[in-house]
Each structure stands twice: as C-alpha cells, then as structure tokens.
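User: My collaborator sent over this chain with a note saying "see what the structure looks like." That's all I know about it. Can you take a look?
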Amino acid sequence: MSPAEKEAVETFRRDVVEPSMTNLVIIDFWAEWCGPCKALSPTLEKIAADYADKGVVLAKIDTDKNQFIAAQFQIKSIPTVYAMFQGQLVADMTSARTESALRVILDQLLKQLPIQSEAASAEAELEPLIAMGEEVLAGGDAERALAIFDQLVEMAPEHPAVVSGRIRALVAGGKVDEAEAMIAALPDALAKDPAVERAKSALALAQSAPPVDDLSPLIAAVEAAPDDLDARFTLANGQVANGDRDAAADTLLHIIQVDRTWNEGAARQQLLKLFEVVGLEDPWVSAQRRRLSAILFG
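Assistant: Without extra context I'll predict from the sequence alone. Here is the result:
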C-alpha cells in the first residue's frame, strides 16, 4: 500500500468509520463531473440535516480523489449511496433518489439499530413521563393528567404522544373548546400523526356525546321502547360521555346486530371512534373487535 493509499484509508477511518461507531453514516460516492450526483446531493444534505438529532451524518467521498477507497467498495457507477453503522454497511440506499424514499429507509434503520443520538436520549427521558400521564388519564383524573401533559408540552412541544395526551386530557376535563383550538394550531404534519388522530377522535366523540348527569331517563326510554334504535344510540352516547365503555360497547353492538346499516352505520362509526380513543392496541379493543366481527361475519 502506497503512502497516498495509507493516508486515504486513515482519512476514511477518521471521517466515516469512527463516526459510524455511534452514528448512522450515509456514504455518498460522487464526482464533480457526475450530473445525477449533483442532482441527488441537495436531497442527501437536507435529509442529513433533518435527521442530525437522530444520529445521522453524511460523508461524501469524491471517487476521483479517492480511487483506492472507491475500489475497496467496488464502486462501478455513481452516485452510489450506502449506510454504515459500527463499521459495517447496513443498507444500499442507491435506488432511493427521492426524499420520501430516503426517509422510509432511514426510519426503518433507526428503529432497528441502537443509534446514540439526542433524539433517542430525549425519547428515553420522555417515555416514563408520558406513560405516567397516560396512566393518570386512564384512571379518570383529567385535571392531574393535564398538569402532567402541560409540563411535557414545555419539554417537547411537537412530540405526537405529548400533544395527543394533552388534547385528550383537555377533552376528558370538559375543555372541548381548548382542545379544538390546540388541534387547529398544529402544523399539518403533526396533525396527521396517528397519535394526534387518536386525540381528534376523542374530541369528535366528546362533541357527539356531551356529558349526561343522569342516565336513568335514557335507560327508561330504552326499556319502554326496546326497538327504538334512536333511543339506544342516545343511551350509548350518554354511556360514552360518562366513561362506561363496556356499557357503551354493549349498546352499540346491540344496534349493529339489529340493523348494521341503521342511520348510515352510525353505531359502527361511533364504536370505531371509541376504539381509537381507547387505543387500537388495547386488549379491551381487541376483545370488542372480536365481538364486532362475530356480528358482521358470523
């Protein structure tokens, strides 16, 4: 190995391999004369900047000036783009020429690899606090849950789980107008996050099922006219508003069993909103989904 080759290897080790011990390094093999390389370069630079706090860095290798390194990687055409972690190539990203395609690959890699990053550290710090807020909210203490999520919003104002938790705490505490205003002020990308969609469902459910002080008149109305599905739906909304999800599910499933198309499927739509508010991964939702499937397909 010539002195120039040794220097090239040492430079590559310092600028690429060593950073890859704790970061995900995007390696861009390019050259000045390469038109597609120049077209791709701004996209890679933007992606690297957007993902910097997640432990992603960009290393650009000019193949004309680093022919020995390019030969070691058997680079036959450019641009060639690899991802390296802990000194090992973990992905060939060459076919991803758009920002969205690159984001998909990076998101998958970041989920699989133990990258040390500011974002990962912040997430680890937030997770137990978010879990505490969710536990308090599930326990019915909306005021205390809101206090917890208020603090979390100051720490991470655009974290989807934090934003979702605060909105749902507002809804649970009867502060529907504040929840609506908070959703309206969200950036489009954040508003479309699944966690925030769950909060939107909670708001929609609260707006369609306002609190009821006394369910006994609604229960009496159903008992007096068992076939009156409007009365049953009103009762279901009252049960939802009062937090009795078991009774609400029973009532809505009864309506679906009697007439699944009643009121353009209103009972099923309301039940699905309830599922989303509770959480689609919740065991209770799984059990109710099985009951719904048995009615629809049994």
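A starting point for your reply to your collaborator: The chain has a mean pLDDT of 92.
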